Amino acid sequence: MPLGVRVEVALLALLSLALVVAPWLELSWLILTHLEAWAAVSFAWSVWLLARNHPAGWFVGLLGVSLYGLLFWQVKLYGEVGLQAFYFLTSLQAIWIWRRAREPLADDSSARAERPVGRIPRFWLLLSALVGLVAFAALRWLLLDRAGASPTWDALTTVLSVVAHLYLMGRFVESWYLWIAVDTIYVPLYASRELYVTAGLYAVFWVLALRGLLHFRQLYREGGAPSACDPATEVVVG
User: Fold this and answer.
1) pLDDT digits over 135-165, tens only?
2) 59 in a domain, yes or no?
3) Which of 73, 132, 136, 151 is most exposed, with the fewest beta carbons within 10 Å of its own?
C-alpha cells in the first residue's frame, strides 16, 4: 500500500475514533449525538472508498445513509430524508452495476472486467439538467408546503445529489464535479441546523471529491477502471 494511502487511512481512523468517543465525553462546546457520530464515521469511510474506486464503499454507505436518514428527520431536513432513502435503494443497484460483467477477460473466458470509468453522453447531460430543474422547482414547493428548514437549499442539494449519485453509479467522471458543488453548499447548510460535525465532515468530503475527480480523470485517460480489489492493480489516488 502506498505511503500516501496509509497516511489517509491512519488519519481517517483517528478521526473515526474521535467522533465515536466524543459523545461519551459530553463536551459543553461540542453538539454531537451518538447517532450523528456513527453516521459521520460510516459515511466518511464510504466516500473515501468510492473516491478510490472501491466497490466496498457502496456497502459501507448503506449504513451511513440509514443513520443519516434518522438524523435528518430529527432536524426537519425532509428533502435530505428522502435523499437518504433514494441513496439506500440505488446503492443496492450500484453494487450490481459496478460489479456487473462487461466483457470477458482475454486470459480467462469465465472472468469479466468491471464497468470502466467514462464520460456522460451529451444527450443524457442535457436531459438530466432539464429534469433536474423541474425536480428542483417541484421539491422546493413541496418543502415550503411542509414547512421544512431551508427549503431552497434543501431542494437544490437534494436534486444535485441525486444526479451526482446516478452519475457515480455509472462511473462517470462528471459525478465528482457535482459532488464538489454539493459539498460546498452542504457545509453552511448543516451548520445552520447545528450539525457542526456533519458540516465539518462535508468539508472533508469536498477534499475527497476533488481527489475522486482527479482519480477518475486519470482512469478515464488510461481507458479503464482496474479492480480496486485486486492487489496486482493497486490504484493511487491523485
Assistant:
1) 999 999 988 887 777 788 888 998 999 999 8
2) yes
3) 73
Residue 95, pLDDT > 80, answer yes
| 31 phi/psi in degrees, rounded to 5 | -90, 100
- For 133-142, letters b (16+ CB in 10 Å) and e give eebbeebbee
For residue 101, is pLDDT > 50? no
Widest CA span in the chain: 61
209 in any annotated domain: yes
Domain count along the chain: 1
Per-residue b or e along 194-233, where b marks 16 or more CB atoms closer than 10 Å to that residue's CB = ebebbbbbbebbbebbbbbbebbebbbeeeebbbbeeeee
Model confidence at 230, in pLDDT bands (50, 70, 90)? very low
Residue 109 falls within a domain, yes or no? no
* Strand intervals (E) in the chain: 104-105, 108-112
d(CA 181, CA 161): 9
User: Are the C-beta atoms of residues 61 and 87 closer than 8 Å to each other?
Assistant: yes
User: With 70 as the cut, is the pLDDT of residue 229 above it?
Assistant: no
Residue 190 lies in a domain: yes
Amino acid present at 67? L
